[in-house]
Amino acid sequence: MAYDLEEQEKLDAIKAWWARYGTLVVTLAAAVALAWGGWWGWKAYQAHRANQAMGYFEALEDAARLGGADSAVRIKTAAATLREEYPATGYAARGALVAAQALQAQKDEAGAREQLEWLAAQGKNPSMQSVARLRLAGMLLDQKQYDAALGQLNNPPPAFAALYADRRGDILAAQGKREEARAAWQSAIDGLGTANPLTQVVQLKLDALSGA
User: d(Cα 206, Cα 110) in Å, to the nearest integer?
Assistant: First the structure.
């Protein structure tokens, strides 16, 4: 009999606890289930988006590699789709670089510059942005837009400091600013180190400047 009373007291305590907290428990469980399902749904959506972006990137690469009469149009169309619809996938930045190189090879300087200018303005992918700024500075140098070219080389990230210094030297030399060019190239050599093959190239430019 005592056992039955004890069991009844436990049941009553459970019922009372459930009456007080049952709704909260159910609500929390539902919230956790929804959050878990939402997280997996988001992951699946992101994977789907990445696959779509990869498809456009591969189409861009094919157009750049195969060429053809309408390749420039196909390159620009694929690159624009990546920029507008898949800017956060990483394929947009890579696509801009591939497109810029292909369009420049086809003598479409305006199209190539557009790709690089877009990427140079993107801060979410610092390494690709730095590459775009470096290449854009080179293109502007070829077009003799020296001030604009130098403007792309401000505040270089540490990993690109030596490369930016080398390009700055090229621009300053083209402007006839010999001492500033010499200082920039020497900075590039110091940053690259003796083991880097590019050091020899910069040294040749520095020697040519000294012998001129």
Answer: 32
Rounded to the nearest 5°, which phi and psi values hold at 91? -70, -25
Query: Pseudo-torsion of CA 16, 19, 20, 21, nearest 10°?
Result: 110
Say if 63 falls within a structural domain. Answer: yes
Q: How many domains does the chain have?
A: 1
Range of the domain at 84: 22-124
The token duo for 157 is: 């990230």
Q: Rounded to whole angstroms, how far apart are CA atoms 64 and 140? A: 22
Tens digit of each residue's pLDDT (9 = 90 or more) over 141-200: 999 999 999 999 999 999 999 999 999 999 999 999 999 999 999 999 999 998 999 999
Q: Are 161 and 191 in contact (CB under 8 A)?
A: yes
Q: Tokens 């459970």, residue? A: 14
Whether residue 104 is contained in a domain is answered as yes
Over range 128-134, report the average pLDDT.
Answer: 94
In a domain, 191, yes or no: no
- pLDDT tens digits, one per residue of 52-92: 888 888 999 998 888 777 889 999 999 999 999 988 788 99
Residue 41 resides in a domain: yes
